[in-house]
């Protein structure tokens, strides 16, 4: 924690490219007119990121060959 | 200097910096805010000298050291991932279908994008054979995907309830034979909900999106004076799904494989007549008892009297900040509700491949009309030039499907440079077509609104983290 900068979230999104985009996450509607689910608020079932809530429900990840 | 991108923004007086490629979020002081405004190309000795004069040489050196450290750590100006993006392509497994089981509605809402239910065509209910064939197509086209989703939509889908009920039964049976698990959603105005219908929705774990705009006067003004009847149905349903305002499900805004229990979320629309929509959100949460809700800007051409236009943006931005501040206060007081447009999953969200693919309309997601026509999504229904085929013939417009597959953040106008591209995935194709006349040109007002919502969402996340 710096004196001038407080890092609140540091997920390293680039590292998730090793996953293929298995599309097992929810269907999103970018106008959100139907499901209120946009790609911004989807939770990933094979999360490569660091949310402890999602690690509890982790499925087998599909990794790019 | 790396080739990364940051976005600096202020919400409710807090200075935040979002690193686009890594997804990192930082709160910074005024000095660092100014310093980062110089990066990457304007960090000259004269610019630094100006900062030293206004702050102090020591402070500037400290801030600069912190910035450089975060750049080295990949949390500021981090470079894009090195990869070949995996984009949607024709032949991808279909994930979901939207069954427009009724091109008819018992209400005549002023702003209805579906032309009060009939989508500019004849009033029509979907026959069983069309619904069953659509389910067969979904199973066939879903490939190896183990989960298939069917969304019941309209018009008002409950005017064709017998077909919905039979389709669920058919899909369960056909899915079991094919080794597929089916999940269902239904979007309804709630005025036709009965105990019998709610029993089936509960038994079959159908997730439900309930339409209500907020305060009764707001709902009545746009939704055919339906507030009383809609509220009656919604209260009865929420008593089952969220008794006492406590949801019986998990991850209401993000179901699919990780969902636990069927959700019931409220969804409203705001227009230029209720730009004070914080009051409507709070009404839905406090008076109706919805733990999960959203209020979406009306999708309408600018000439419509209720449309959101450029001139409304400053007021809406202020209202979003007011809403975010109110939600933050509620969180501290233990009275929080989930406002879906302020929900982002910066650490548990989908992978980058998913983020760049968008909604998959026309490829991974299809809408079916009562006559069995296939459109890219429910919003395209009735726009004849977007008809992809029929459930009987299959896809007869592979060229159109290829065009839709090729429409994403790397090809849409302005998306490659936009800081929010991994949060919005390029926005809605149908809105772009309706409002800009081209699916490759995102609706510019929609983009402005989305960016503001993401700023508020990130601010809320920052407030949450700052308290940890």
- Strand segment count of chain B: 16
Q: Nearest-angstrom radius of gyration of chain B?
A: 24 Å
How does the helix and strand content of chain B classify structurally? alpha/beta
Which segments of chain A are poorly predicted (pLDDT under 50) over 5 or more consecutive residues? 48-65
Q: Whole-Å distance between the termini of chain B?
A: 33 Å
Largest sheet of chain A: none
Largest sheet of chain B: 11 strands, mixed
Strand order of the largest sheet of chain B: 12-11-10-9-8-7-4-13-14-15-16
Number of strands of chain A: 1
Tally the helices of chain B: what do you get?
Answer: 15
Outline of chain A: flat
**Overall helicity of chain A:** under 10%
What is the oligomer described by this structure? heterodimer
The run of helices and strands of chain A is: EH
The overall average pLDDT of chain B, rounded, is 93
- Beta-strand share of residues of chain B: 15-25%
Compute the CA-based radius of gyration of chain A. 15 Å
N-to-C terminal Cα separation of chain A, in Å? 37 Å
Which protein chains make the most extensive interface, counting residues with beta carbons within 8 Å of the other chain's beta carbons?
Answer: A-B, 54 and 98 residues
Low-confidence stretches of chain B: none
């Amino acid at each position: 924690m710096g004196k001038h900068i407080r890092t609140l979230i540091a997920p390293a999104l680039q590292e998730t490219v090793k996953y293929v985009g298995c599309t097992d996450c929810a269907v999103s509607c970018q106008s959100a007119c139907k499901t209120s689910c946009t790609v911004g608020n989807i939770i990933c079932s094979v999360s490569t990121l660091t949310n402890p809530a999602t690690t509890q429900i982790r499925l087998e990840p599909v990794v790019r060959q | 200097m790396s080739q990364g991108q940051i976005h600096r923004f202020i919400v409710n007086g807090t200075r935040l910096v979002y690193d686009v490629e890594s997804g990192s979020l930082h709160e910074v002081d005024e000095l660092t805010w100014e310093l980062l405004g110089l990066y990457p190309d304007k960090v000259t000795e004269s610019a630094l000298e100006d900062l030293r004069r206004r702050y102090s040489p020591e402070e500037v050196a400290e801030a600069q050291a912190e910035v450089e450290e975060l750049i080295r750590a990949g949390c500021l100006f981090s470079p894009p991932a090195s990869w070949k993006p995996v984009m949607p392509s024709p032949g991808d497994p279909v994930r979901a279908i939207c069954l427009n089981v009724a091109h008819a509605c018992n209400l005549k809402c002023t702003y209805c994008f579906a032309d009060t239910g009939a989508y500019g065509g004849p009033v029509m209910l979907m026959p069983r054979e069309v619904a069953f064939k659509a389910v067969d197509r979904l199973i066939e086209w879903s490939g190896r995907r183990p989960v298939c989703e069917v969304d019941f939509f309209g018009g008002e889908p409950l005017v064709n309830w017998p077909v919905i009920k039979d389709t669920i039964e058919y899909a369960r049976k056909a899915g079991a034979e094919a080794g597929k698990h089916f999940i269902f959603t239904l979007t309804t105005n709630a005025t036709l909900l009965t105990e019998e219908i709610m029993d089936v929705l509960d038994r079959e774990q159908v997730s439900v999106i309930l339409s209500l705009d907020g305060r009764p006067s707001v709902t009545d003004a746009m939704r055919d004076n339906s507030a009383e009847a809609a509220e009656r149905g919604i209260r009865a349903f929420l008593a089952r799904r969220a008794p006492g305002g406590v949801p019986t499900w998990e991850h209401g805004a993000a179901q699919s494989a990780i969902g636990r229990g069927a959700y019931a979320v409220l969804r409203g629309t705001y227009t230029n007549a209720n730009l004070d929509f914080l009051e409507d959100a709070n009404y839905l949460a406090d008076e109706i008892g919805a733990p999960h809700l959203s209020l979406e800007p009306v999708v309408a051409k600018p000439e419509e009297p209720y449309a959101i236009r450029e001139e409304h943006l400053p007021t809406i931005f202020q209202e979003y900040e007011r809403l975010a501040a109110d939600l933050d206060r509620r969180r501290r007081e233990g009275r929080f509700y989930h406002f879906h447009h302020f929900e982002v999953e910066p650490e548990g969200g989908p992978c980058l491949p998913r983020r760049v693919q968008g909604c998959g309309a026309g490829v991974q997601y299809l809408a079916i009309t009562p006559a069995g026509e296939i459109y890219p999504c429910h919003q395209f229904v009735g726009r004849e030039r977007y008809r992809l085929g029929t459930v009987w013939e299959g896809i007869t417009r592979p060229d159109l499907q290829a065009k839709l597959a090729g429409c994403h953040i790397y090809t849409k106008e302005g998306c490659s440079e936009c800081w929010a591209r991994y949060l919005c995935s390029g926005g809605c194709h149908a809105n772009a077509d309706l409002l800009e006349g081209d699916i490759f040109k995102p609706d510019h007002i929609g983009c402005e609104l989305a960016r503001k919502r993401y700023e508020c969402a990130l601010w809320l996340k920052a407030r949450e983290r700052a308290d940890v």
